[in-house]
Each structure stands twice: as C-alpha cells, then as structure tokens.
Specification:
4-stranded antiparallel β-sheet; 3-stranded antiparallel β-sheet; 13% helix; single chain; mainly beta; 2 helices
C-alpha cells in the first residue's frame, strides 16, 4: 500500500503535460506554488536520453520517434507519463481540448 501526502495528491491531480503525442515541444503546467522541477526522458530500455531542470517547455525534436517515458519531479514529488514522440505535426497545440486528452500514468520511482 502506497500512501501519498496531500501535496503529492495535489501534484498528481493538477500537473499537466501536453501535447501528447508531440513532435517538437512539450509543455508542463505544474501545480501552483511549485519551486523546483526536474524532467527526465527514458527510452523503453530504461536509459536516460534527455534531462532538464526548471524548464516548463522542453524541445523533444532530437528524440527518436516512438514511446518515451517521462519522469516529472516537482518539489521531490514524482509522476511518470507515457509520451508518444512522432514526426506528425499537430494543429492547435496547447488548447484545453488537447490538454484533456492527455493520458496520465502515475507511479512512484525510487
């Protein structure tokens, strides 16, 4: 049984990553009041392929196409997302409708 603090539940509920799938730019909308954010991208073999600190817009154009795991750590709270990197250009990136289509998967990485 994994018990989360109120702050961890808030982070998981309010943090958004979009668009997904994406071809170039990923935007992270963290919960209000965040101080530190670290984002790491991993291939399916578990190798870290990109890492950023305190950036909410990340250029992923250098990543290979396919499924990528994205670990978002905000103020020591961790959430993992599945992200599809593709070459296809999407229209209306960042709209509320697109944000709602983002599929989130929460896990705790230790």
């Amino acid at each position: 049984l994994h018990v989360r603090s109120r702050r961890q539940r808030q982070m998981c509920k309010e943090t958004e990553v979009f668009p997904n799938p994406s071809n170039k730019l990923i935007k992270i909308q963290p919960y209000k009041g965040w101080k530190n954010i670290q984002v790491s991208f991993f291939n399916l073999q578990g190798k870290e392929i990109l890492s950023t600190i305190n950036q909410t817009e990340i250029d992923i154009s250098s990543l290979s196409n396919g499924l990528v795991l994205m670990k978002v750590e905000i103020d020591n709270n961790v959430k993992t997302y599945k992200l599809l990197k593709t070459n296809k250009v999407r229209e209306k990136i960042g709209t509320l409708k697109e944000k709602k289509r983002v599929k989130k998967i929460s896990t705790r990485l230790s």
